[in-house]
Design brief:
about 375 residues; 4-stranded mixed β-sheet; 11 strands; elongated
Length: about 375
């Protein structure tokens, strides 16, 4: 539960960073296809990057610690707690207690789930109304496989998947620019983008940046559809007049791609604007440093502690076959071997200088006869 809330918060932060960079660098460019890819990629990266954790392993050698060397680590008696000390100072709930209760992970998670369910129910209801409108409409099959649904409601033209919905008045007018615009939405699969972003609004309903991103993605959809109409040699001025007339219709559903009044000014401005230089796509590379910083910020270092060997063997010790205090080895000897070792005169040719020996019963013994564990 807590891990999911932390993950969702990280997603919200990344979406905000990606989106504000988009608004600063890319929003006014006429490369609509690239802008659409950038927005969708920003969402995907924001959801994936918190799950990508780079783990670095570091090994540190430490000196062996003995309890005798660290007397401060001796466990002391914790004592007993008196009955008076165990009693809470007060049973009254003050303001601080209320604040702490509200910010408990379980409470936050419950609020999040309520918002998630409410948003999903709203989306499901919009989908149900959209399906009912199309089902009750007068349907015509066009030559390119698109279904034309004619309704008796004063709705603005819109499309959903492979269906174009027109009011009876728009159908009788048979304006080719309207069909070209909605065919552009269908050909570019804008409906799938909308479904994806609506699911994102359910997971990030508390994040105001997501709602701004949702609005801008829909605007980019309209830019792309307008460009598909103008590419068919339609007159720009007549098309702008058509948009201004049709934008006053009622919007049918949040899932529909349709002409609406809120984006008309931006769309007219974008249609009349000079095309962006092709080198402007380099601005989209702002995504790379954000990804790099995110990976560095979430990277973690795992330190593995390794005890240094207490009796290192040096090359000189191996060459001379001599044991000294600086390269002491532990020899496990039987009683008979220990007696033989004691009889060797230290320093004699071929002798081995042994400071101590350990019996096979685990008792260490100096050759002066003293014993200790």
């Amino acid at each position: 539960m807590e891990e999911f809330l932390i993950y969702d918060l990280k997603v919200a932060v990344l979406i905000a960073v990606f989106y504000f960079c988009y608004r600063l660098l890319m929003e006014r460019e006429t490369m609509h296809r690239l802008n659409r890819i950038v927005l969708l990629s920003s969402i995907l990266l924001s959801m994936v990057l918190p799950l990508c954790v780079i783990t670095l392993h570091k090994t540190v050698e430490v000196e062996p610690m003995r309890l005798a060397d660290h007397p401060e680590m001796v466990i002391t008696d914790l004592g007993t707690i008196s009955a008076e000390e165990s009693v809470a100072p007060s049973i009254e709930v003050n303001r601080m207690d209320i604040v702490e209760t509200l910010f408990q992970p379980s409470v936050i998670f419950a609020v999040f789930i309520i918002g998630l369910v409410c948003r999903l129910l709203y989306i499901a209801n919009s989908y149900r109304q959209l399906c009912r409108m199309i089902k009750d409409s007068e349907q015509h099959s066009l030559e390119d496989g698109v279904t034309l649904a004619v309704v008796d409601l004063p709705v603005a033209p819109f499309s959903w998947m492979h269906t174009i919905v027109l009011s009876r008045i728009d159908y009788e007018e048979r304006n080719p620019s309207i069909l070209a615009h909605e065919r552009g939405h269908i050909r570019l699969h804008h409906s799938w983008d909308i479904v994806f972003v609506e699911m994102l609004t359910a997971l990030q309903w508390f994040n105001p940046v997501v709602w701004l991103l949702r609005r801008d993605l829909r605007t980019v959809h309209e830019y792309e559809a307008d460009a598909s109409v103008l590419s068919s040699d339609s007159d720009v001025s007549q098309y702008i007049q058509l948009l201004m007339r049709k934008a006053m219709g009622t919007k049918a559903s949040i899932l529909a791609n349709g002409i609406n009044n809120s984006t008309i000014k931006k769309r007219i401005f974008m249609m009349l604007k000079h095309k962006s230089n092709r080198r402007a796509w380099l601005k989209a590379l702002y995504i790379a440093p954000i990804v790099a910083v995110s990976l560095v910020a979430t990277a973690k270092t795992v330190t593995e502690f390794k005890t240094k060997p207490t009796n290192p063997v040096t090359k000189s010790a191996v060459a001379t076959d001599t044991i000294t205090k600086s390269n002491a080895l532990v020899w496990v000897l039987t009683d008979e071997q220990k007696k033989q070792a004691k009889t060797i005169t230290p320093g004699a040719p071929g002798s081995i200088s042994i400071s101590a020996a350990i019996h096979d019963n685990g008792v260490k013994q100096n050759f002066d006869g003293s014993r200790y564990i």
